[in-house]
Design a protein that fits this description.
By secondary structure, this protein is α+β, with helices and mostly antiparallel strands. The protein is 36% helix and 19% strand. The strands form five sheets. Strands 12, 13, 14, 15, 16, 17 and 18 form a seven-stranded antiparallel β-sheet that branches. The chain has a five-stranded mixed β-sheet with strand order 2-11-10-3-9. It is globular and about 75 Å long.
C-alpha cells in the first residue's frame, strides 16, 4: 500500500484559502444572486482546490466546496429540507474531458452506454414537491440539502402545474420532487431592463441574475410580472414503469411539465462530439441563455449502479462552452472617472457581436494593464466575455498593428474638470483629487443611493443624471429637499412615479449607522468595515469624537483604514457633507452594540469545523456578544482551529494568542462566562 505523501504547510494554507474564497463566491452567487467573478474565474479556483485535494486526499474536509453544493441559506425565506439532496454536476471544459468521462463510465459498466444530451440552462435550479399530484412546496436548491421555500412565487411561473390531472397523477410517486430550472427569456430581460432604465434603476447583468432575483421576490406579484418560465428534467424518486432518462423527459411532458424539446439520445463518441459542436454554434439562436450541455447515462438502473459522491452523480457531466472570442479594432482609448477619482482607461471598439450581444467598449483597468498588453489605438484585438457576461480584452494581434501607432499615455489632466491627475507611489491607480469634479459627483451620488448605502429605489443613473443636469441636485443632501413636482419635470416621469420616488427618499431619513457610513464613500471603507465601525461606536457622535488610534483599535480596521476615516471625517469636504446631511434632517439610527459575556472579545476561525458551518460558528460567537473576525492581530482574543487550518494558526502562535480546538470551542460556547479553556 502506497502511503499518502506528507502534506506541505503551504499546501494546507493554500487549500484553506481556496475553501474560504470559494465559499465567499458561493454565498454571493447562490444566496445573493450577485456574483463578483466570472464563471471561468470561479471554475479555475474550484479546479485548483480539486487538484490539491486529489494530490493530498487528507486535505479534503467534510465541508469542502468540492463535496458540497451551493451555500447555506441566510435569507427572509423559510428554510426547507429537500427529500433527496440536489447535487451539482461535475464539469468538463473540453471534448477530451468529455471523452474521459465516457471512458470512465464504459470501464465501470463494462459496456458503452447510450447518453442523453440536454441543454444546460443558465437559470435557477428549483424543486417542486407534489403530494398526490398537488404542488405543496416549491424550493430553491440552496446548499443542496436545504433550500428556500418559494411556493407562492413558483406558482406564478408560466407552465408549472399547481395540480397534475388526476388520471395522470396516478402515475406519479405519492410524494415526489420534480426538478428543473427556472429561467428568463432574452426578450423578457431586454424589456425589463428598458423599463428599469426608464425608472433609473440598476439593470440586470444577465438572464440568470434576473431570473434568480425575480423568483426570490417577497411580493409574488412582482415575480408574476417577470414572465418567468421553466424546463424540468428529473423526478425523485424515479417513477415506477419508467426505465431511462430519455423516457423520463417524455413522461414529465405527458404530465404537463414543460420540458426542453432540444434533447437527443446519443450513441457513440461521434454523435456526442457532433452534439457538442452543434450547440456551441447554435446557442445564440435560442430565445434563452445556455452555458453548456449536460450528458447523462440513459438507463436508470445503470445510473443507480454508478451512484454518486457527496457532491455530484458519477453518471452525468456538464460540458461548459469555452468563452467565445472575436476580433475587432480599437477606435479610441478614453478614460472614465470613478467616485473616488480613480481614472480607468477604456478601449472604445468597432462594435462586434460576442456571445449573443454587441460589445463596443471594454475596460483596461489601469495604466499598468494597458502597458502590459500594449494596447494602442488602431490595434486589432481579441475580445471575449468572461463567463459570457463581462467583456474583456484577451490580447492584441500585433502582427496586424498599423504603421505609426504609438503607445497609450495616461492624460495629465482630468477630462471632466481639468484638474491635474496624480498617481501616488506604490499604487496602480491614477486619480483626480479634485473633490468638486463633476464626474466624481455623479458617481458619488450613485454610490450614495445604492444598495448597502441609502438604498433609494427608483433613483438610478438616468434619474440622477437628469437631476444633476437640471441643477436640482448637486450633492447627496439635495435629494432630501426634492418635491414630487420637481421630480415630475424629468423626461418620462409620470406623476405617480414622481410621488413614489419622493416617498422613497423621505423614507430613508433615518438610515442604519452602517449604511450611513458606507454611503459617505470614505476611501477603503466597504460595507463590512462600515458594519464593524457602527457596531463598535454605536453612534455617529461617538465615532466623530474618536481619534485615529481609537478607530485603529477596532478589530478589522487597522491604521490604514483608520487614517482614511479620520482624514475624511475631519476634512473640509467631509465636514461639509455631514453638516449638509444633518441640516437635511438625516439622523442615522444608533447601532445595536454587541452585548453578552463575550463582549469585547474577538474570535477568529480557521480551518473547517466538523460540527458547524462557518456561518453557524460566527452566529454563535455574535450571539454571545463577541466579534467573529477574518484576520488575526494582537487584538484577537482567541483563534479556533478546525481541520486543515490556514496561515492564521501560525500568526496566532507567533503572537501568543490562545488557540482552541473544536472541542474546547464547544465547551466554551456552553460555558460562556468561564475563562478561555486552557488560558
Amino acid at each position: 500500500m502506497v502511503a499518502e505523501p506528507k502534506i506541505p504547510p503551504q499546501a494546507r494554507a493554500q487549500a484553506a484559502e481556496l475553501r474560504e474564497r470559494i465559499a465567499h463566491h458561493n454565498y454571493l452567487y447562490y444566496a445573493l444572486d450577485a456574483p463578483e467573478v466570472s464563471d471561468a474565474d470561479y471554475d479555475r479556483l474550484f479546479r485548483e482546490l480539486q487538484e490539491l485535494e486529489s494530490q493530498y486526499p487528507r486535505l479534503r474536509t467534510r465541508d469542502s466546496p468540492t463535496v458540497r453544493v451551493g451555500t447555506s441559506v441566510s435569507t427572509p425565506f423559510r428554510k426547507v429540507r429537500h427529500l433527496v439532496p440536489m447535487r451539482s454536476l461535475n464539469d468538463a471544459f473540453s471534448g477530451a474531458e468529455v471523452e474521459q468521462f465516457r471512458a470512465r463510465v464504459e470501464r465501470a459498466l463494462g459496456l458503452e452506454p447510450d447518453l442523453v444530451g440536454e441543454l444546460k440552462m443558465d437559470g435557477l435550479a428549483v424543486s417542486l414537491t407534489y403530494r398526490e399530484g398537488h404542488l405543496v412546496q416549491g424550493a430553491t436548491r440552496g446548499d443542496g440539502e436545504v433550500g428556500e421555500e418559494v411556493t407562492s412565487n413558483v406558482l406564478t411561473v408560466e407552465g408549472i402545474p399547481a395540480t397534475v390531472q388526476p388520471e395522470l397523477a396516478a402515475a406519479m410517486p405519492p410524494v415526489c420532487e420534480v426538478r428543473g430550472e427556472v429561467y428568463m427569456a432574452k426578450a423578457v430581460l431586454d424589456e425589463l431592463n428598458r423599463t428599469r432604465s426608464g425608472q433609473g434603476l440598476e439593470l440586470y447583468a444577465n438572464c440568470r441574475n434576473a431570473a434568480a432575483g425575480s423568483l426570490r421576490q417577497l411580493d409574488s406579484e412582482i415575480t408574476r410580472s417577470r414572465h418567468l418560465r421553466a424546463f424540468f428534467y428529473a423526478c425523485d424518486p424515479f417513477p415506477a414503469g419508467v426505465d431511462d432518462q430519455f423516457e423520463l423527459l417524455s413522461w414529465l411532458e405527458r404530465l404537463g411539465f414543460p420540458v426542453n424539446p432540444n434533447r437527443k439520445l446519443l450513441q457513440g463518441p461521434a454523435e456526442v462530439e457532433a452534439w457538442l459542436t452543434e450547440w456551441h454554434e447554435r446557442r445564440h439562436l435560442l430565445p434563452y441563455e445556455i452555458d453548456g450541455v449536460v450528458l447523462k447515462i440513459d438507463r436508470h438502473s445503470w445510473q443507480e449502479e454508478l451512484g454518486a459522491d457527496s457532491r455530484a452523480p458519477r453518471w452525468a457531466v456538464a460540458y461548459k462552452f469555452p468563452p467565445e472570442e472575436r476580433e475587432t479594432r480599437v477606435v479610441e482609448i478614453s478614460v472614465s472617472i470613478g467616485r473616488t477619482g480613480a481614472v480607468t482607461p477604456v478601449a472604445e471598439l468597432e462594435p462586434v457581436l460576442v456571445a449573443g450581444s454587441v460589445v463596443s467598449h471594454v475596460t483596461l483597468h489601469n495604466e499598468d494593464q494597458v502597458r502590459l498588453k500594449d494596447v494602442r489605438v488602431g490595434d486589432r484585438v481579441v475580445i471575449r466575455k468572461a463567463g459570457d457576461v463581462i467583456p474583456e480584452l484577451v490580447r492584441v494581434v500585433t502582427s496586424q498593428r498599423p504603421a505609426g501607432s504609438v503607445p497609450f499615455e495616461m492624460p495629465k489632466a482630468c477630462p471632466s474638470c481639468g484638474a491635474e491627475l496624480t498617481r501616488e507611489p506604490g499604487e496602480s491607480v491614477t486619480r483626480c483629487l479634485n473633490p468638486l469634479c463633476p464626474a466624481q459627483r455623479q458617481r458619488r451620488l450613485l454610490h450614495f443611493v445604492s444598495r448597502g448605502a441609502f438604498d433609494i429605489d427608483r433613483c438610478g443613473p438616468v434619474v440622477l443624471a437628469e437631476l444633476v443636469d437640471r441643477g436640482l441636485v448637486s450633492g447627496p443632501a439635495d435629494l432630501f429637499s426634492l418635491t414630487p413636482e420637481q421630480i415630475e419635470q424629468l423626461p418620462g416621469m409620470a406623476r405617480r412615479s414622481a410621488q413614489q420616488l419622493a416617498a422613497a427618499i423621505r423614507a430613508r431619513r433615518q438610515p442604519e449607522l452602517a449604511n450611513f457610513l458606507y454611503a459617505l464613500g470614505i476611501r477603503h471603507i466597504g460595507e463590512r468595515t462600515a458594519q464593524l465601525l457602527a457596531a463598535h461606536f454605536g453612534t455617529l457622535e461617538r465615532m466623530l469624537g474618536a481619534g485615529q488610534a481609537e478607530i485603529g483599535d477596532v478589530n478589522g480596521i487597522g491604521p490604514v483604514l483608520a487614517e482614511s476615516v479620520v482624514h475624511f471625517l475631519h476634512s473640509p469636504g467631509g465636514e461639509s457633507l455631514l453638516e449638509q446631511l444633518a441640516q437635511a434632517g438625516i439622523t442615522p439610527r444608533e447601532a445595536a452594540q454587541h452585548q453578552g459575556p463575550w463582549r469585547g472579545r474577538t474570535v477568529v476561525l480557521t480551518g473547517s469545523l466538523t460540527g458547524f458551518t462557518r456561518a453557524e460558528a460566527e452566529a454563535a460567537i455574535q450571539a454571545l456578544g463577541g466579534v467573529a473576525a477574518s484576520s488575526v492581530s494582537r487584538k484577537t482574543a482567541v483563534v479556533v482551529v478546525g481541520e486543515a487550518p490556514g496561515s492564521k494558526l501560525e500568526v496566532a502562535r507567533r503572537l501568543g494568542i490562545p488557540i482552541l480546538d473544536e472541542g474546547q470551542f464547544r465547551w466554551w460556547l456552553a460555558h460562556p462566562d468561564a475563562e478561555v479553556p486552557g488560558g
